[in-house]
């Protein structure tokens, strides 16, 4: 089976695909399918955004309260 990558749109075989799922309270909020290249880019972006650094300042504007 071959479905498109959510990053670049290219067809990607199941054996090479990486699925990323975001769940909150066991309910899926988001699900994305990536080819190996787009998955590597996603990991790099995630690591940069989640790592503490002097260039990244957190503010209360980033917090969503429902």
TrEMBL record:
It comes from the Archaea. This is Small CPxCG-related zinc finger protein. It comes from Haloferax namakaokahaiae.
